[in-house]
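G., the chain you wanted modeled:
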Amino acid sequence: MRNKSIVFGVLLIALAFVGLRSAQSDEAPHPVEVRPSTVKPFALPKQLDFAGEALPLSVADVREKLDREILVNSYWQSNNLLMLKRSSKYFPIIEPILAKNGVPDDFKYLALIESGLQNVVSPAGAAGYWQIMKSTGIENGLEINTEVDERYHIEKSTQVACDYLNEAYGRFGNWTLAAASYNMGMAGTARRLEEQGVGSYYDLLLNSETARYVYRIAAVKHIHENLADFGYVYHQDQGYSFPEMDTIFVNVEVADWISWAKTQGITYKTLRTYNPWIQSQQLSNSTNKAYQIWVPSK
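Predicted structure as tokens:
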């Protein structure tokens, strides 16, 4: 009886094994899925510049800081892919404004690391694609109130960023320090330079955020310009884009944007999606200012 039980048990195990093998063969994984994930450090570039200004990669501290940002950002794949997709949508708007103002094209990556090209608000209250503080926006001619906040206007906020960066460049004499000052302010940057008796961003001891700032911009630029080297498979036609747009000028009061949107054959959601600077359901417009409204073409 005992021998029969053993034989029966062995038979059950054998049948279970055959069944398992059969089930696995029906759902066999793709060869790529069974490969171990490759996690490795990347070779640093022999040379790298930001806005035409070379990073001093012969300095060990500079290499280490750049290496950190390349590793952190290259392995944040989901964020990188989203930034690439949004870049296809917004860089064509940003790039001509930078060029018109004589600001190096690399500064588009500053907007990318500031907001991910999203209309977000920082804990300190900086808002929009370029993360502009309310006081800075108002000082530079942006309308910011409960009904309108032009920090969320891609063209107008980019112009304000250009004005700031050109002023900073005039003050510090190079684009690297202009970029650093975008993070910590011109006064703060000038104070640190004077206190420490140096003239270069790479020689400054700074707070942790500003100390990483230019390295992060340079690293994201390097990754996005050399995607294949970091294992990314991305095609430009996979990016986001705007639909064909019509521009409608509004220079009167709007009692209800929801009703106004319906007269244009669009929803209130569509209106706010493409005109995120609209912050309220109505527009007082006592000065009869002309606002440009983007509406998808019919």
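The beta strands are 49-50, 53-54, 245-250, 291-296.

Shout if anything looks off.
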